[in-house]
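Subject: Predicted fold for MATE family efflux transporter, 437 residues

User T.R. writes:
Posting the sequence so we have a shared reference for the thread.
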Amino acid sequence: MSKQLSLKQLSVPIFCEMFLRYLSLIINTVMVSQYSNSLVGAMGAGNQILDLFITIFSFLSVGCSVVIAQALGARNFTLARKVIHQSLFLNALLGFFCMLFILWQGDFLLTLLKIPNELLKDSQIYLHMLAICLFFDAIGIVMAAVVRVYNHAFFVMFVTLLMDGFIIFGNYIVLHHTSLELFGIGLSNVIGRVLAIITLLLILIFKLKIHLKLREMIALEKEVVKKILNIGGFSAGENLLWIVQYTIAFAFVASLGKENLSVQTIYFQISMMIMLIGQAISVANEIIIGKLVGARYFNIAYKHTWVALYLSLVASLVVALLNFILQDFTMNTLKLENVLKELIIPLFTLSIFLEVFRSFNIVMVNALRASGDAKFPFFSGLVFMMGVSLPVGYALCFYAGLGIVGVWLGFCADEFLRGLVNAYRWKSKKWQGKALV
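User M.O. replies:
I've generated the structure tokens; pasting them so everyone works from the same file.
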């Protein structure tokens, strides 16, 4: 199990992959904003809808990853092969119907987002191109999950670099040498994703020796699909709870005025970047725990998660402290006005605690999910996100007069308490009876 237990070999390329995706988004936004501010708004609306749909169908990749990891740990290669084929078919099917839905009802979705009339035409063009991307994303997400769980996270990082590099280059050509604007940017995204799918397919065939067959894809088995959905369904539910929580909290802050809303938007992106290190370690640990649980090495899995938690807490604390130290540089780089600086400064301090608590929570959630105990973190999320984060944030924001800081204190309370509860669940070892294989 030595190769499987290398947290560093998995977490480093996973972090780089996540960081590259985030960096690509920033670079593309800056490139488009330099060309036209109105196109940024039109592009942002499409990206928001794309992110929502990716969240909806990425749950199958989570279930796929956990079941394959447990199957490999148990050396049940037949089950692993079945999960790969059936997950790819189901997600491709789901991605296809999501694509059709956006092509059919995309204008309605943009209306719900209250896109200004002057941006509507560009938003429609871009969203229709992104709809095609959804189909390829649905397939790519599962393929990437398979490659990772077979201990080749480096290849996924390479594919991400290839795809993002092509998209950035394509966008530059579109904006500076054509008049295609958002249609061209959408086309660049589609071609980049096709290249990624082809590369991942070659890795599956030649590196992992997995030869995909259509006959095996469409031969869905009730027990196999049930195992995938058992993990993926609750994982999707937890992610949707998180989105609902932040959307409602966003509305709290929006009611405080445009300055607070600007700070919320800016610092949320900073927070997401800090969280990448904890996410990478937790995903790497999830793969390892899945294999250990499948092999019935419960004690090793139990101890390994505490080691991963310690590393994640230390890494998150270091990054959060660095963010705090560099706060003046960050604010000056973003050219924030004084009124925005006064609002955002307390969040730099609060992040030191929030990011450590969040890292604490996500490591425990992913470990429980990898063991097959996905139901528990879903219900703990339901209780604490809806019952602690939002009520506490609302009370501190409006009744205690803390404003945006109160909302973020609500986030802290949720992450800390939920982390403790999930850690207690792990310590109880009740997850040992939840294995899927």
